[in-house]
Amino acid sequence: LKLSAHHTLKNLTLSHNDWECNSLRALFRNVARPAVDDADQHCKIDYHLEHGLCCKESDKPYLDRLLQYIAMTSVEEKQRKNEPCSATDAINSAQSL
What we know:
This protein has 97 residues and is mostly helical. It has helices at residues 21-30, 61-82, 87-95, and strands at 19-20, 48-50, 53-56. Strand 2 and strand 3 form a beta hairpin. The longest helix has 22 residues, at 61-82. This is APL1B.
């Protein structure tokens, strides 16, 4: 995130995102903490709080997310094959992963 010298940031909403910890640390080197006016309360498994936001340590964040998406898709496809479900059931199942 780069801002020119005569531009400032008043508010920045960062919670409820899929942060990789190194990216989050780099962001906070450039953004003053008072500009961030929100925080996460609870983190998913394998995530931890840093600067009040959930993040995941990863050497290869894009590969990790791709593998997670593939696994999630495979689970959903197996569930649909075994027993048809409603859109609501599919959403609830995906969110619980």
